[in-house]
């Protein structure tokens, strides 16, 4: 049960990777085709550099020249048939001079690979059948068997006649078994050819699992990515999932273009699939690019495959162009008719405009008179509204002043009454103790008077009374500052020093001397607090005090009772 679960996870992951949408993949492919000249120029620069190195390498240094020829072969391997084949001759000549069986077999295998890429099946099998690999090292033997297996796979797919196909597949699988026994298990070649063999033998699920895991590998070359994604496209085609198959073929095509691989079938597959879906424009672009690459490489098999679909796409493209041409002619006639209709309508409109102009002039005079009257009425209404607003503001200020006076009269009467009662009690106690000559108790009694506590209670009662008048003062005050500069009062704290200063300003006490006297601070301290708060405000400094005086959330309708008055 574990393997199917892992396979499902891999498929979901890769479908998610393709979730950017087919449109974005198609745009990426179109961009790659547009930039293909840049990728080819990079390839040519690499080849030019290697050629210069080869020319500057002494003829006597055969080993160095062999290594450079090998690198040039790898550069041309998927880029150009003639040049790649030419460099295999250099490799073979050096190998034969060295009489090294492994190097000779390696050079001949590379020649066979180029023959197969060019679509020369007969020459490919003739060369393979005469190639002696006895005494050849394991890696080269592995390449021989994998190449021979690929030849039989390609031959089976090309014939596809139901008679010889099965025997070709059997021979191909036998060759792949031999190759897989020689490739290191953790190598790319072992993983890829194992997946390919499972695919050809009908084990699509296992092949899919292997290839999806392989494409997660790091440091894959563009060509290796193209091999894997192209094969995955074939698997999803066999699973009847054309949309997913097309996305993998598109990814393979992009990788081929970026690696300047000209011998490829991925772009042909994309063109064929989207042509069947009705996308003739892009199909024509892709088939032309595929045909151009196949011609450049001299890939005969690809030319045959492209030749089967290219005329159909071009025919449909011509039909599409003809249809668009007919539509354009129809649109042109419709435009002519529309212009004629517009000309007739224009004449009628001009006549109506002349009649309307006369009526408009007479109406204009009436409108001007009406506008004058309306302007006068509007001005009168504005004056009336301003007067009403002023009256309302005056009434509000009077109501607010009365409410403040009422609250604070009650507040100070309560303070005074309480204070007098406490003083009377204190005086009586002192007189009594004086009569009894209890001097130490008198001292203790006097020391019991805590003026600091009295001051704090006085401020708390002030805060309580003020917040009864302005219950939303702290909230509205905080709106004048950035969130990080707003006050967060402690639990049971009504106002802090800064808020108390501006509460007194809201009450109409604006002199620093008076505020300092009430709060028992120095004048400089009060000035410093006010300046700091104005600097932090999000409004201009000269607007700050005016905004403070505009804070009004008085509850005018709330009755004032004796119980509402604060006490000390």
Sum this structure up briefly.
This protein has 23 helices and no strands.
Detail the topology: elements first, then pairings.
Elements: H1 2-17, H2 22-34, H3 36-56, H4 62-76, H5 81-98, H6 101-117, H7 121-129, H8 138-159, H9 165-182, H10 188-200, H11 204-214, H12 222-238, H13 242-258, H14 266-276, H15 280-297, H16 300-435, H17 439-447, H18 451-469, H19 473-478, H20 497-506, H21 512-519, H22 523-536, H23 541-549
Helix pairs in contact: 1-11, 2-13, 3-4, 4-5, 5-6, 6-7, 6-8, 7-8, 8-9, 9-10, 10-11, 11-12, 12-13, 13-14, 14-15, 15-16, 16-17, 16-18, 21-22
Structural commentary:
This protein is mainly α. It has a domain at 439-564. It has helices spanning 2-17, 22-34, 36-56, 62-76, 81-98, 101-117, 121-129, 138-159, 165-182, 188-200, 204-214, 222-238, 242-258, 266-276, 280-297, 300-435, 439-447, 451-469, 473-478, 497-506, 512-519, 523-536, 541-549. Helix 6 packs parallel to helix 8 (138-159), helix 8 runs antiparallel to helix 9 and helix 14 (266-276) packs antiparallel against helix 15. It is elongated, with a radius of gyration of 48 Å. It starts with a helix and ends in a 19-residue tail after the last helix.
